């Protein structure tokens, strides 16, 4: 457990050992938090919450700015830890740390101006709403963008007056502990606490009483388990979970440009992004040229020798199992799709042609550098196929038609629709995932609403009887 520091224990049977996915060398070993430490952390967070909640929002904002300065100073160290534990290139990891700095600075500004609303009532009365912190927030965060995602949630929770117990992913525990040490020094003791451990610690946290909000970014299966527990306890749940994001490509776009977009969406961070392109529907008129260009994009990435590995061999096995199954069911392996020799958890950029909905690469989240392609006869067919399925995180359409773009916005049942760009968007943007992809706002100003409750106040003029 870490409040302002972390104490290592001798490794035991449940110790977490992390291997560098680039070469298989040992990064280090950490003990998971014990049930007693979990209970102590939650008790401490509850104890210090009233004082932190009573702190003026502007003062809480100053604490966030101090945390931003500390995070900026520790950026090279944290980026290197990220690279060692998850395999993410240092430059990309550094960008994630700086995104965390920006989140702290953004919420330091937004928190103090987070306000209620005036309600129109009687002339001689006042009606308004007040936003109050929920209390103790338990944050369970992922490994694929571990600093940016965690810091965004931490910043929004703290600036609105909640205390935080944070459990980072067991796939990057050293990074999570060090991040907690860096940030917690900017806040009063016990306001931000870091725990270590895997699914068993996360499950223990969700079963504890006295938790007012759960925020989870990770798999849909875990998110659903948290939601079921919270339904019995009444705990507010905020979750961004898995995606199976489609890309629909119209006949009127440049197929080479479309392939570039598809490659960025499917292969960035080796496909380990919640909003990665997971399935592609391309119009038959440009399908041949598109496929050739997409294979070339994959080949360029594979030939550089610098293509980042997956986070570990377990995930690589899961990705390869989906690829192998698709090939068994009739998909054509245009490039990639084979586990390379040597140490580490590397997997090549892979393009599969002729895919159908009987294959898991088209219906489940793959979370690897795989681009499964299906040819459709019309944009409308592509939209219909894209709208099918249990997930509802995001979707992208590439089209030169305003009418088709509008049709996509109106019909795709997802939290975010992107037109003519697989990534991007304005700072502070937010969305509400649907289906098994989650619930609640995960980013932007609306995230402050997730960490607060609204109280309605009605004040009337005193009557003559009160004199």
Automatic annotation (TrEMBL):
Coiled-coil residue spans: none
SUPFAM superfamilies, sorted: ALDH-like
Residue span(s) of domain Aldehyde dehydrogenase: 14-457
Keywords of this entry: Oxidoreductase
InterPro entries in alphabetical order: Ald_DH/histidinol_DH, Ald_DH_C, Ald_DH_CS_CYS, Ald_DH_N, Aldehyde_DH_dom
Molecular-function GO terms, alphabetical: oxidoreductase activity, acting on the aldehyde or oxo group of donors, NAD or NADP as acceptor
Name of protein: Aldehyde dehydrogenase family protein
């Amino acid at each position: 457990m870490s409040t302002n520091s972390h104490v290592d224990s001798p490794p035991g049977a449940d110790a977490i050992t992390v291997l560098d996915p680039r070469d298989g060398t040992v990064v280090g070993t950490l003990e998971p938090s014990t049930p007693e430490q979990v209970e102590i952390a939650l008790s401490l967070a509850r104890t210090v919450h009233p004082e932190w909640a009573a702190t003026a929002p502007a003062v809480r904002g100053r604490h966030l700015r101090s945390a931003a300065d500390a995070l900026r100073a520790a950026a090279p160290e944290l980026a290197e830890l990220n690279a060692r534990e998850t395999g993410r290139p240092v430059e990309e990891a550094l960008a994630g740390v700086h995104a965390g700095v920006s989140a702290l600075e953004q919420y330091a500004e937004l928190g103090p101006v987070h306000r209620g609303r005036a309600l129109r009532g009687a002339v001689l009365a006042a009606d308004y709403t007040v936003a109050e912190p929920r209390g103790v927030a338990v944050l369970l965060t992922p490994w694929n963008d571990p600093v940016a995602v965690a810091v965004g949630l931490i910043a929004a929770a703290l600036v609105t007056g909640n205390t935080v117990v944070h459990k980072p992913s067991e796939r990057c525990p050293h990074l999570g502990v060090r991040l907690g040490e860096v940030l917690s020094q900017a806040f009063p003791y016990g306001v931000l606490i870091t725990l270590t451990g895997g699914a068993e610690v996360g499950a223990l946290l969700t079963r504890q009483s006295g938790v007012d909000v759960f925020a989870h970014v990770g798999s849909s299966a875990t998110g659903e388990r948290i939601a079921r527990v919270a339904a019995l306890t009444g705990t507010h749940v905020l979750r961004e979970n898995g995606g199976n994001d489609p890309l629909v490509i119209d006949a009127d776009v440049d197929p080479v440009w479309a392939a570039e977009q598809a490659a960025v969406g499917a292969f960035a961070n080796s496909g380990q992004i919640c909003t990665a392109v997971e399935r592609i529907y391309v119009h038959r008129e440009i399908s041949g040229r598109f496929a050739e260009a997409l294979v070339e994009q994959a080949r360029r990435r594979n030939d550089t020798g610098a293509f980042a590995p997956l986070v570990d061999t377990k995930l690589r096995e899961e990705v390869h199992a989906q690829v192998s199954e698709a090939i068994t069911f009739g998909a054509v392996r245009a490039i990639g799709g084979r586990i390379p020799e040597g140490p580490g958890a590397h997997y090549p950029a892979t393009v599969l042609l002729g895919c159908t909905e009987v294959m898991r690469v088209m219906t489940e989240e793959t979370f690897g550098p795989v681009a499964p392609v299906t040819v459709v006869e019309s944009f409308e067919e592509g939209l219909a196929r894209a709208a099918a399925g249990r997930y509802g995180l995001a979707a992208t359409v590439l089209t030169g038609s305003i009418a088709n773009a509008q049709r996509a916005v109106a019909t795709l049942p997802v939290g975010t629709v992107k037109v003519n760009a697989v990534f991007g968007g304005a700072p502070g943007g937010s969305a509400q995932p649907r289906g098994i992809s989650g619930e609640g706002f995960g980013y932007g100003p609306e995230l402050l609403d997730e960490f607060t409750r609204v109280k309605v106040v009605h004040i009337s003029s005193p009557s003559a009887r009160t004199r």
